[in-house]
Known about the structure:
Blueprint: E1 5-11, H1 15-30, E2 34-39, H2 46-52, E3 56-59, H3 64-74, E4 79-82, E5 87-88, H4 93-101, E6 106-114, H5 118-134, E7 144-146, H6 147-152, H7 163-172, E8 178-187, H8 189-194, H9 196-211, H10 216-224
Parallel strand pairs: 1-2, 1-4, 2-3, 6-8
Antiparallel strand pairs: 4-7, 5-8, 6-7
Amino acid sequence: MTLSISIVVPVLDEAAVLGTALASLAPLAAAGAEVIVVDGGSRDGTREIAEERGCRVVSAPRGRAAQMNAGARVARGDALVFLHADTRLPENALDAISAALARSSWGRFDVTIVGKGWLLALVATMMNARSRLTGIATGDQAMFGRRDAFERAGGFPAIPLMEDVALSRALKKLGPPACLEDRVATSGRRWEKHGTLRTILLMWRLRAAYAMGADPRSLARAYDARPR
Length: 228
């Protein structure tokens, strides 16, 4: 690792997965990465798990954008990685990020979605291909960038959904992303919980609406209104 790297993990009631997530980050922390857990008001012991693991824990208003921005503000690294609690970085993540940021100001990984059925594999394939074609990354792909690029792009906008797409658009103005073939592995739990095909169709509709100028707040209400 040639750059100092901070990994920002936004969490809200993630006690069921956070211990495993932080264990997977332990080798990266041992190699010099800073791990920051940003809690949005968990009530299930999430914060305590992070503290027991010796992570730096900060509090922020609920919402991924606000939480990731809060983590970025206190991070010490030259580069920032934004990682969902149910996403696992590859073992070579630090070297891969450092190499990518030597040629680009930001980037993301390819993704594998872990779960049952062929639809999730199709989702991952399409997500990776779309990202290469458009230069737009999603949070599931573990977006990363140089701190100065993140600051010049204005950070994550204060919107409740599509914050990753909005930031990608801002970062694209600084240059194209490094689209790494190294893969992160993310859980398919949210697709499976609400029905894989139903979730795919919903996300396509929401992304299309956002591209056409829909208010992210109305899109967030539609996302939250999924059958439980």
